[in-house]
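User: Before I run my own analysis I want an independent prediction to cross-check against. Here's the chain; please return only the structure tokens and, at the end, one sentence I can use as a sanity check.
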Amino acid sequence: MTVSVDMGADERGSPVTMDLEELLATRLLVQGNSGSGKSHLLRRLLERSAGQVQQVVIDPEGDFVTLSQAYGHVVVEASDYSVPEIGRIAARLREHRASVVLSLEGLEAEGQMRCAAAFLSALFDAPREHWYPALVVVDEAQLFAPTTGGEVAEEVRRASLSAMTNLMCRGRKRGLAGVIATQRLAKLAKNVAAEASNFLMGRTFLDIDMARAADLLGMERRQAEAIRDLARGTFLALGPAVSRRPLTVRIGAVETSARSGSPKLTPLPTAPAENLAELIFAPPPEEAPTLPMNFESRPRRVPADELLGTIERPAPQPGLAPLPDKSDDEVEAITAEVLRAIVADADAASRPASVLFQDFGVRCRMAGLARPPLDLPAFTRRLSAARAGIFDVAAPEWAEAMALADTLPDDMIGAFLLVARAAREGEPCPSDAQLAETYGTSSLGRVRRLIANIENRELFVTRIDLSGKRSITIPRLGWTTAASEAG
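Assistant: Structure tokens:
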């Protein structure tokens, strides 16, 4: 299932969309001077993709905390926690797939870098079973991946730069899709910026930044002047997730707003100058008696354990009625039907299980389930069975076969069950091409090594007759396929 995020309109008024699945695989770089509309662009992307994918926002100024009221993001005020607690929170977020805004407001530059490094590293180091797809949005990325050391300790700079490099260079296989925004491309480490395949370039004036932006967009240097003339909120877009050729896009409206806005002109006072002077130089008033305050001057510090509990039990989004509870039989029927729909999708065969798991969660929600009934490891095994044509894994006739499949690595289960289904029903032995599709490869040599590996585990016995046809027996089940051509 393809999810398109409406980002705005092009010069002709046609909608410009971003392919969310492609974005997860190819990452995004946003560049523009202060006031060009970068934060507005990020907010539009986050609002329009909320509920489709987990979102993690590294927010230096605390501007994105307003997403919590409208979309249920967990807000983590970094100044309230120690570095080890930040790591624990990040690991728990990864496990429970809660969307979060990490607000670094109130921290000095070195503290922001130290906190962001610990948070991103914990996301990156999560165990394999928690590698769910997630958009990781880093605003003002030049603060966390600078080209030079600046005034922070070298140890802190290296830790922050390493975490950002891991996010952009190695995060894809772990489901982490970096979306980084910067005011100055020249101040952003090149090995971080170079890993993005999608670009949205806003207004900039410095020659060095325009030249780098033009290079990334594949434009000639003389065309770079167009970047200087872009209006606020207008960006040049390029990349597999949005457009194969440079495209001008005007970012659409957003529903939430930042806590701090752009300065606006207000009328000056009209009082005579002598009256203003009296007000300015007037003696201080007598101090009034101090009254007890019945409100907190800043939000209450949420203990780490309480925040972790919130992550595990996220509050329902406002405006959405809770879904009714369903029986185990109804849940199993919905699960089987959703898996049938996923397997029937022609594009699903080439997508990894971690990406399809996101699709699975959305389809389950549409079918009336409050949350997916399977975690990622269980979904991976059920997907392998579904690709083999087995949807009711709890049926008694499949109990022994599923027990044997559980002894195999996840990537072997689909091929084993495909042969098991053919053997149980007396059908011809699956060909190498059919097994390759289930195994997720185009190499027939790998399929032959797969069969040999399963034979070494004493689960298959392969027989090739004089005509060259192959049959496979599963001795522990007493099932044998009919003979057929292996190719």
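Sanity check: Residues 325-387 form one domain.
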